[in-house]
Structures
1.
Amino acid sequence: MPAVLVKGAGVAGLAVTYELVKRGFSVEVAEKGDAVGLGASHFAGGMLAPFCEREAAEDIVTTLGLAAAGWWEAAVPGEVHRRGTLVVAQPRDLPDLVRFAARTSGHVWLDRGGVGDLEPALSGRFEKALFFEQEAHLDPRRTLAGLAEGLRERGVVFHLAGQQPADRRFAAMLDCTGAAAIRLFPELRGVRGEMLYLETPDVTLSRPIRMLHPRHPIYIVPRDNHRFMVGATMIEAEDDGPITARSLTEFLNAAYAVHPAFGEARLLETGTGIRPAFADNIPQVIETEEGLAVTGMHRHGFLLAPAMAVRAADILTRKRL
Amino acid sequence: MLSLYDAKLSSRLLLGTARYPSPAVLADAVTRSGAAIVTVSLRRETSGGKTGGAFFELIRQLGVRILPNTAGCHSASEAILTARMAREVFSTDWIKLEVIGHHDSLQPDVFELVEAARILCADGFSVFPYTTDDLVVGEKLLSVGCRILMPWCAPIGSAAGPRNPSALTAMRAAFPDVPLIVDAGIGRPSHATMVMELGYDAVLLNTAVAGAGDPPAMAEAFGQAIEAGRLAYRSGMLEPRDMAVPSTPVFGKGVFA
């Protein structure tokens, strides 16, 4: 069995590992962090929203992202919630909602009653909304932990905390190091993203809510135990320092606008990650001297990692390593 | 040819660089628009003292003149600090001076604006002030050293188009020799044509292109619309009148009756 070393145990590295194991490769994973998924993946929204993303992304993001929900369901059964996405706006931003609808497909318009039927907590709060029924979401932390566990059971060896694999010849090495690869590929840049976690028993949501906002696509994704992930900014700076007051204010304002009970929620955590991106914000599988690099996931890690993993595994399979 | 602070420019479109789907789309839009100047927000893409290094490098590679802006600043001191940072980052004395008075309406704070302009002009900056269509404010900005005025035609990002064409006309008449650039509020190419027909020297816009379904194609549309408006202004347009005017003589009809 050909042996492959995957560097980086974030969403890209683990997805590639899964695809390779499925095809009979023997895989070892080297990760500088103390556990899997502690880079940008740790702060991801986990929205599998190929239709909504079309609002500001190329068509290829939708095309490649359509298979993501099914892929994750197969890889980590039980983690994918197929409940769609609800897109809302403040009354004065209704033109933005119309624009959002014009730029995307796969949605239906909901009126006040429709919103309440779907999300009782938001009953009477929005006159108009867009519902993207075919979309899904997952909890990135649970999902990556579950994926890694499944891979271990199937014989994948993980070297965490920067430990190097024992002296073994690998037929190929795959660079899935995310932001750390920015130094290796001059075309890559880092895009800062900030997010936070709120906890409140007073609001129940079944699906991601996107709130149209002039600067950032702000969303609230429900997690287990009354927790909600609120994200995410996109700032053209390679800085992973703490969240800024402005971003925090914008997130909290958006959450409060979606439901006033978020005003009483506990702020559990804030976080910042750096997403590697190419000039067109589309990920790539690049052939390198050592093997391959899977990088440039931008804000589409969970949405596009499956397609990139399949592509990388196809290349290695064709090479008959 | 358009001349701004002694620079000769081939285009009358100034294009903002915020909120495009990707830097690649932005680059395409700049090329197709023919814009000779792009504006860049320093504050928006700066975090923890680190500026958008890679993003700014992509913008430098566009090969057009860069006009850094102070978007997001709410006081003269903040704007002055940002302008000085911009001078270091982009090696230019040009600065689009924007001092926001209200975070919701994004209306300029003209008091802080004049104060910031006074200090920056004295410090050797070439200031492009984003202002209202108020004539007195315009005069004050010129008196502290600005040689360009950039009035809005509607609130930032509103895409509403010229809300008060009479005020824009009055401003053109009041400052016949000052380059006037409409900055903010343009939503469609026809809006840009309209202000160019009023005799404005250039148009600055961002959201109308960045938020379009096909930003590069929209950028090209704006480039053509601005050219059309300018050409029309210089060609002498007809004055509107209330009655039809036949373009061929009509004998035997009671037109003079």
2.
Amino acid sequence: MVFTIIALIAIFAPWIAPQNPYDLAQLDIMDGRMEPGTVGGAGFTYWLGTDDQGRDMLSGIMYGLRISLTVGAGSALIACLVGASLGMMAAYAGGRTDGLIMRLVDLQLSFPAILAALMILAFLGKGILNVVIALVVVEWAYYARTVRGSALVERRREYIEAAQCLALPTRRIIFRHLLPNCLPPLIVVATMQIARAIALEATLSFLGLGVPITEPSLGLLIANGYEYMLSGKYWISFYPGIALLVTIVSINLVGDQLRDVLNPRLKK
Amino acid sequence: MNDTAPTLEVRELRTHFFTRAGVVKAVDDVSFTVRRGKVLGLVGESGSGKTVTGFSIIGLVDPPGRIAGGQILFQGKDLASLSEAEMRHLRGNRIAMIFQDPMMTLNPVLRIDTQMIETVQAHAKVSREEARQRARDALGQVGIPSPDERLKSYPHQFSGGMRQRVAIAIALLHKPDLIIADEPTTALDVTIQGQILAEAQKLCAETGTALIWITHDLSVVAGLADDIAVMYAGKVVESGPVSQVLDAPLHPYTVGLIGSVPSRNRRGEPLRQIPGMTPSLLNLPEGCAFRSRCPRAEPNCAVPPPMPEYRPGRFARCIHPHLEEAVAA
Amino acid sequence: MTVFLLRRLMQAAVVVLAMSLLVFIGVYAIGDPVEILISPEADQIERERAIAALGLDLPLWQQYLVFLGKALQGDLGRSFVFNEPALQLILQRMPATLELAFGATFAALLIGLPLGLYAGLRPDSSVSKGIMATSILGFSLPTFWVGLMLIMVFAVQLGWLPSTGRGETAELFGLRWSFLTWDGLAHMVMPAINLALFKISLVIRLTRAGVRETMLMDYVKFARAKGLSPARVTFVHVFKNILIPVVTVVGLEFGGTIAFSVVTESIFAWPGMGKLIIDSINVLDRPVIVAYLMIIVLMFITINLVVDLTYSLLDPRVRLESKA
């Protein structure tokens, strides 16, 4: 429910935001660092205050949400595709392929995500695309492990054996029989991973290694406010943080509900 | 101590579990008496309320269960009226308990000496050395070789039989007046079972400890107990001296139990069984709980049966007891 | 025990080797090694001399062996910025990071264990439910933002605690530590709590689950049947059993803590290796990055080994299995 509102805000940000924070014509530098609730020179109220450039924070957050969600969901989707394919391959091929892929997964999971992402960005440089690549590299292993786990269980079931006896093509067995049965856990993991990806992106951007200044996500907005916070101008960091928190919590809640709905054992 | 009072007298004990699904009357009207140096066999199928009776006596019924009625008189004192601190003083000291599964009763991460010394020091103000000495003596008493070395071991280094001996040694540390043994030999090999039974018997005779031996195995009780109380669905359905109950059972359930012991049947003859299953204790219907499985059941059985004393110390809760056989015996 | 240790060391060596290969590919294959290893200010002649000196004209597998050989001698290159050996630079900053990470681990246990114990012993009380709800928040909250808010409330608004830096230090074993002075300790409180946030939640949940599971065990009931005091039952019989999973997880998390100190150190300007690596990434001081990575990998392997050994000390059953 909350998540739906957040998603709608992110999608329609350009139409509902009071101001386009990246259109310099709309900015008034005189309005810089105004407290929440002040009426600015542009003629409307800055409910959440303004930043150093005189940008309306509310609009900034709406636009930031857009970038955060895009990066988070995009990277989760790609990681899901990569991870699920590799996991399926490991489960179906078994033997050496399985061993190799799972060794890679173990290696990836034993290394903290934040460090791995930092290193990749250190070698690749900043930029939205690079952040997405880093997030994909960090996260694919979770999907691979999930899919392999449930695929291994499903593979032993009679209906797969039956399909194999009918000499159905491998591709058909995987996509028509194996994959649909691995989907429920995969969807739950994917939801949780979107939240993780958003948090990680925010952290990376906060450290100055994520998205570029021209496309600020919530994390970058928070980082912007850091220097002003020491002089008591809390709102520049505070409100984007709240937005980030609500986003992450609501996605996690959706994941929790999905887990309950998709788990057939809990339905009874 | 009052010598004339029995060690333990349980009167109309009721222990109920107040669960969300309803009240489970795990123990519902249980009475029996155990005297000094005597052994009471508490017999019944799983789920008949034997174990809960044991826990009720020692005061370890966990929520949502609680004692809902009756009296537990230990040397004349009602245990239900004692505070938790007074109860704790009795536990492990005057009343000890031995559990069913020896693999689970000893804490896996604590050494044997720790687990024994803490028991000694919980009830006696003695030095660690003195406590260790007592622990060693207790281990020797239950037949554990080289107790000094064994004290430094962890539970997983012992076999099941050895662990049960350790548990028994812990129960003996303070020479209790009453030991409640909850199926202590069920999980053990038959040979070890025999050894432990013999030791238990010797112990009671020597120290005057009263013993409640909870079991589902009639053959164990036959050789060990002085008295017997048969439980069914939370109630004692028959009680009396062991020879009388086993040779001339009054209650049809007891008759069925005895009939299903293999050694009592002739070879080649099919084992007699009690048809059906133990009823759910949740929302038990009024009247005799055994009537759905009883060959002698009739409409009258739906009325709660009384428990008259047929001979001194000989009770049965049935309106159609096997009196003819009893007379014949 | 020796066999167990040897086998573990062998495994560790394999992982180090694998990671060095990954780092090597990261530095030499993805990026341009010339750009990474030679200062951008160098002119063409210096550049070519350096390429020859570094053996960059050799085939890749030979380069890897050279890299490995140097790494084994502790030579991981020189920092462009500080013009010091990268390894030395990182080792100088390591005590500050370790101090912070230990502080956070300590804080997590100090706060998490009692709360988890309480929530486990009284699962239905409203306080317990509050504790559990807060712990869920601890998993969801973006740590860096909480750090900012801590600074805002306790340093800016209330002025109770200093916002940044390490404060006064005192010397012990030839290294400077903050926790030995009051001022240093005051500086440490907020970063340590901030870094501990996730772990506190983790410890609470693990402890609670452990307590609830252990309380149902026969040996706990037997301990009560022995007439032990509730305190002894809880703190000896229950507590020692739940300590095993908690210590394992917290220990394994220690590597994650050091990794995440990158963020905390940046917020609180804590002069540890995390802040160094962020600064190095921002100025592209790549030898330092490589050195940091190798050291982190080594640290991780050491942590895993130490956790395994501690585990066997706490659980006598594991000790026996490893002997067999």
